[in-house]
């Protein structure tokens, strides 16, 4: 009998005793493309996007997918076909969106360190809004816009100083975080922007953190930005949109994040203005449970009372467990009854003690078993590196019974070819 699979993995079903991506056996994909391998479900990505989009009903809105969660061109293309907007944090992400057929007029640009060239390219492409994170940045945007003879659409990112109750590394809306400006500074920046011939204030922006599992911090943040909108109106500054950022959490283990529809309803009610365009920037909630990382057990090893399953994916492929002590489910793709049942530490090949994917997992394992690290569609491949001169994994997209390679595994020329050409 196949193990039961929770609802969130509905597009990674058990069939004939083995785990699939939609209708394609994961074991077949591993044979075909090798491991480690990222596998995404196109149906899952599209469904999650639609759930956000449809939840808004008649409220004007733009769902700007946060590209940093998973920036594969084919992922972006699928979402662009759905009509998504995009939240970017670099010119590289902008170029990806454009290459994937994304609409620049639905792109918002976040990030604390936008360079001159990045601002210039965003203005040239005609994006919807540059989300400004400091007074110095606003001045730079004005300068670049003036030099190019254009008017830059800007929103100020407000740091509402609310506790998002998430891991400290991914909380962004507290006053000790580097993001955004406080509410008093924001008022001043809007007044400067409104008076500048090359700046046009179009929206108000905030983002309080990632992997949020409660609605209260969102409500608190909206209340604070709504108060600021009122103040701005008194200064005759009327804004067209309210960008409430991303951050809706997903279930990795036993978290109980709000449903997408409840989250959106909460925002719409808190804004309470049927004419205001609401922008959201979800990344994880669209992509995380639309992907898995496949890895093969190279060796089993027993030290004292520790059992190690040494696999071919490491922290360079998936850094979340090492960086945030994040827990992601690890499932044998073709479970069997023979093998050693133990509490396994699933560790990678990288020369760091922090190189683990999971610890103390009760599993029955043999060498060469194939494992799926679940919920790996967001902040998996995009945070991968070449540490230990390891090539980054290939990525595959599955839709129904079809699978296609959407990024080949890095080969040695890709890894150091251009660098070798610099040798004397
Ligand atoms: C400005 C901004 N928008 C959107 C996101 C996406 O967050 P999440 O993937 O949690 O939805 C982030 C990441 O935290 C962010 O910094
Ligand atoms: N990379 C983080 C989320 C960062 C959100 C970006 N602001 C994670 O994997 O949980």
Automatic annotation (TrEMBL):
UniProt cofactor(s): pyridoxal 5'-phosphate
UniProt EC number: 4.1.1.20
Uppermost EC category: lyase
Gene: lysA
Ranges where the Orn/DAP/Arg decarboxylase 2 N-terminal domain occurs: 45-288
CDD domains, A to Z: PLPDE_III_DapDC (cd06828)
Pfam families documented for this protein: Orn_Arg_deC_N, Orn_DAP_Arg_deC
Record's subunit section: Homodimer.
Residues at the catalytic site: 351
Occurrences of domain Orn/DAP/Arg decarboxylase 2 C-terminal (ranges): 38-377
Catalysed reactions listed for this entry: meso-2,6-diaminopimelate + H(+) = L-lysine + CO2
Matches recorded under PANTHER family: DIAMINOPIMELATE DECARBOXYLASE, GROUP IV DECARBOXYLASE
Protein name: Diaminopimelate decarboxylase
Annotated GO MF terms: diaminopimelate decarboxylase activity; pyridoxal phosphate binding
Binding site for substrate: 284, 320, 324, 352, 379
Species the sequence originates in: Sulfurivirga caldicuralii
GO annotation (BP), single: lysine biosynthetic process via diaminopimelate
Function summary: Specifically catalyzes the decarboxylation of meso-diaminopimelate (meso-DAP) to L-lysine.
Family: Belongs to the Orn/Lys/Arg decarboxylase class-II family. LysA subfamily.
Pathway linked to the protein: Amino-acid biosynthesis; L-lysine biosynthesis via DAP pathway; L-lysine from DL-2,6-diaminopimelate: step 1/1
HAMAP family reported for this sequence: LysA
Positions of modified residues (N6-(pyridoxal phosphate)lysine): 68
UniProt keywords, alphabetically: Amino-acid biosynthesis, Decarboxylase, Lyase, Lysine biosynthesis, Pyridoxal phosphate
Highest rank taxon of the organism: Bacteria
List of residues binding pyridoxal 5'-phosphate: 247, 281-284, 379
């Amino acid at each position: 009998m196949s193990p039961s699979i929770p609802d969130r993995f509905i597009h990674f079903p058990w069939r004939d005793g083995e785990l699939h991506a939609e209708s394609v056996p994961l074991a077949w994909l591993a044979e075909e493309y090798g491991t480690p391998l990222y596998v995404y479900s196109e149906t899952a990505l599209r469904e999650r996007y639609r759930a956000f989009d449809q939840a808004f009903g008649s409220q004007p809105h733009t769902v700007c997918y946060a590209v940093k969660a998973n920036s594969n061109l084919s992922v972006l293309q699928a979402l662009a076909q759905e009509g998504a907007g995009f939240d970017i944090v670099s010119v590289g992400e902008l170029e990806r969106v454009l290459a994937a057929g994304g609409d620049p007029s639905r792109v918002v640009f976040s990030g604390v360190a936008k360079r001159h060239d990045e601002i210039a390219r965003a203005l040239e492409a005609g994006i919807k809004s540059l989300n400004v994170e400091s007074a110095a940045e606003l001045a730079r945007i004005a300068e670049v816009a003036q030099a190019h003879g254009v008017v830059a659409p800007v929103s100020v990112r407000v740091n509402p100083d609310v506790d998002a109750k998430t891991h400290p590394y991914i909380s962004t809306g507290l006053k000790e975080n580097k993001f955004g400006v406080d509410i008093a500074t924001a008022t001043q920046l809007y007044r400067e922007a409104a008076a500048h011939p090359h700046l046009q204030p179009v929206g108000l922006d905030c983002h309080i953190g990632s992997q949020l599992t409660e609605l209260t911090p969102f409500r608190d943040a909206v209340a604070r930005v709504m108060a600021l909108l009122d103040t701005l109106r008194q200064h005759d500054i009327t804004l067209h949109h309210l960008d409430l950022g991303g951050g809706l959490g997903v279930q990795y283990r036993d978290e109980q994040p709000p449903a997408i529809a409840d989250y959106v309803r909460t925002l719409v009610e808190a804004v309470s203005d049927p004419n205001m365009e609401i922008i959201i920037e979800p990344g994880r909630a669209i992509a995380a449970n639309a992907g898995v990382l496949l890895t093969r057990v190279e060796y089993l090893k027993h030290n004292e009372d520790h059992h190690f399953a040494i696999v071919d994916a490491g922290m360079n492929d998936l850094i979340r467990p090492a960086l945030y002590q994040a827990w992601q489910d690890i499932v044998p793709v073709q479970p069997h009854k023979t093998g050693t049942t133990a509490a396994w530490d699933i560790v990678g090949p990288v020369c760091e003690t922090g190189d683990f994917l999971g610890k103390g997992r009760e599993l029955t394992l043999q060498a060469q078993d194939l494992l799926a690290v679940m919920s790996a569609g967001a902040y998996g491949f995009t945070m991968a590196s070449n540490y230990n001169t390891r090539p980054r994994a290939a990525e595959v997209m599955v839709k129904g019974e079809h699978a296609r390679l959407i990024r080949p595994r890095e080969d040695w020329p890709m890894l150091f070819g251009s660098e070798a050409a610099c040798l004397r």
